[in-house]
Structure formats: structure tokens, C-alpha cells
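REQUEST FORM: STRUCTURE PREDICTION
Request ID: SP-0412
Submitted by: Lab K.M.
Chain count: 1
Length (residues): 465
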Amino acid sequence: MLLEIFLTLALGIIIYLFLTRKKEETLPIEEGWWGKGQKPDYEEDTTVRPFKVETTEAELNDLFRRLDQARFTEPLENSCFQYGFNSVYLRKVISYWRNQFNWKKQVEVLNKFPQFKTKIEGLDVHFVHVKPSSLPEGRSAKPLLMVHGWPGSVYEFYKIIPLLTDPASHGLSDEHIFEVICPSIPGYGFSEASHKKGFNSVSAACIFYKLMLRLGFHEFYAQGGDWGWLICTNLAQIAPNHVKGLHLNMVSVTSMRFTQLLSILLGRYFPGLFGFQDEDVRRMFPFLKKGLYRILMETGYAHIQATKPDTVGCGLNDSPVGLAAYILEKFSTWTDPEFQKLEDGGLERKYSLDDLLTNVMLYWVPGCMVSAMRFYKENIGKGIGTQKHEKLPVRVPTGVASFPNEVLHTPQSWAQQKYLNIISFNFMPRGGHFAAFEEPELLAADIQQFVGRVEKEEPWSEKGK
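STATUS: Completed
RESULT:
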């Protein structure tokens, strides 16, 4: 009798726990409408249309006229890039842009990869879609979504795409060959901007999720840095059963626990206590200089864009010189903070002027600087740590490529408070914020090894348990 009672109680407890267990929470898939006016009654056209970048003589003549009429302010003596973009070097950049830069040739470069547009939630979404030219017999390509940030564009990925779609021809292992999809964030490049308030990273993630499903990909990898970090993170929160792995070259945490705050004070002296490695200590401390001070010095733009983007955006959208200075200063300081001490900002040490100006043109030609800046207000304007996605963990397998010159270093012990399944965290030997643009070989190799670990260590059938 007692045994029967015990078994009945035990069974009841098991059933209760099963019925009341907390389900793994995900972000809801939004059904937004970001087009003009009210959402129409008829179904949206889901056609995927080929797209090519085009230019006209009138477009170039207007640009040249504005460049010819530029006004420059003399820099302070010996100021280099410490006050922003040095106008002595800016004159050189503008002269090159006006007299040597060949936009028509760069349009051909942009069009060497297949590009498309498709309507999603009322917006014309632009994306680059590159398939491997050939595959070994019996092999299939792994779909990889790559998302850019600000002030970048899909052009950041043009050097890494061949390394991923044809790795053997570039000295990399062909164990994993990718089919790469690089969408322009709505409001950036040739993707239509939202016509309504509220379009944030979760909105973009929902659109890119629908894009991948529309292209026939129900399992795929996602990779990003800058806004791409947050959009891909949100995508992993929305569709954890579809995102096989999440690879990031930038990680940020928006909420700090007491132990993390304590690690700022004591981590330099007791690194092991807080899970810090020697490289973490080197990159983080002294924290006042490498953490707090650098954030204060490098986020002024974000305060403007998160509050009044349209105000400063008017000037940048009207002046190609102002636009170039505003964008390219980031490619200097965010590549290496020591470049501030150089009169030319060190820009041509890592990039060519053709590449840098092509990226600028992807803001100038479509006139998208204001809408790109608004993305900051939509994501930060309501406050940091207030959104649902900021409180939800990420459970999909995650890999981090940590570059030494990233604006702020996030150690693995911090990152794993948010990303619960980090299976790869590697300190890169060199490079900064624009990893795919600056160090495509390093980033491609890290993506390759991460995917290898996912495929071997985290079978798809087991993920999420």
C-alpha cells in the first residue's frame, strides 16, 4: 500500500514538473510592415529579382561639382587624427576621389558577384548571393549569412567571399565550402529604408530570417560584427533550431553582473579568479585607459546618432566631403587606435583608397546616410538593457574571433554569461573592428575551424537539448 502511494506521488510530481517546466524562451518572429502607408490587403510579391549597380554621367557630374566646391578648414599644428579627420590628408583623399578614383570600374567590381532584391515586410531588400563555382563530388555547400554594420556595407565582404566559396584556391582547407548570402541592412546601401519608426535589430533579424527561408535555407550559419553582431545574435534568439552556429568578430554585453563589475576592479591582480587569460589582462587593463576612456572617446558619434540622427545626417547626405571624413575617420581609429598619431590616419596601411571610397560611395549614391544613422536611435534610443532580447541568452553554438584592436575587448568569461554555448573563442594576432575588410584570411580561417567544431561536436539533432 505504501509503495503504491509512493509511486503515485512520484508519478504525480513527474507529471507536474513536465507540465510546468519552463520552456526555452525565444524571441517572437515579428510580422512587421515597414513600407509606405498601410499594409495592403493582397499578399506581398515574393519574387527574387536580379539586381546590378548602375551609374550615370549626371550622378558623377553632380559628385564632381560638389567635390570641386569643397571648403576645408586648416588643422591645428601637429594634431594628426587626434581631433578627427585631418584636413591636410582629407585634401589628398578628395583629390584622388575627384581625379583618379574610377567609380565605373568599381561598379564592375561590385557587379562581379550576383546581386538580387526581394520584397520583405514592405521593403525592397538587397543582397549578394554567391555560390561555389564547383563542389567535390558528394559534397554540398553550407549556407552562411554574413551581416555588415555601420559605417560599412556588403563591400566589406568582397575579399572574404572567395575564401569561403572557393577555399582550396586560396590556400585554405576545403573541408567546409560555403554558399554566402550578404544582405544590406534596410536603410543601408541598396536596401530600402523603413518608412516607419521602430525598425531595430530584431526587425532586421526577422527580415533576414525570412530571406533565408525564401532562398530555401532552413539550416544555416550566421556571422557578423558591429550591427551584424546584434542582428545575428537576435536571429539566433528568434530561430535557434535553424541557426546551426553563430560566429562573431565582435561581442558586447549590455548588462553587467556584480562579478563582472568586480572583475574590472580586481581582474588585473587576480585574473584566474574571474576567468581571465593573460591576453584578456593585456587588452583590458588599465581599464580606465583601455576601457572607460576609450569608450568615452570613441562613442560621441553614437550619442548623436542615437538621439538626433536626422540633424547631422542632413549635412552628411548633402556633402560628399563631409561624408567621407565622417566615415573614413572610423576606418582609421577603429582599425588601430595608434593611427590617431599619424597625419594620414594610417588609412593606406591597411586599405586602398579605391576600397575605402567604394564603401563611401555605397552611402553617397543611394543617399542612405540618414537612414543608416537612424538605426542607432531605434536600437539605443529606448535605453540600454531595456529590450527583451538583451535579457535572453543565446544557446546555439557560438564562436568568437576576438581581434586585438576592437574598440572594447570582451573576455570569454563575460561573453559566456550571454552566449551559453561558446565552443570557440580565439584571440586573433592582429586586426581591428572591420575584420572581413582588413584581415579576410584570418577571419575566413576562424570561420572554417568554428564550423568544423560545430559539425563534429554539436550534431544538429542534438542542438538545443
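NOTES: The beta strands are 48-51, 115-120, 123-130, 142-147, 178-183, 220-224, 243-248, 398-402, 422-427.
Reviewed by: T.R.
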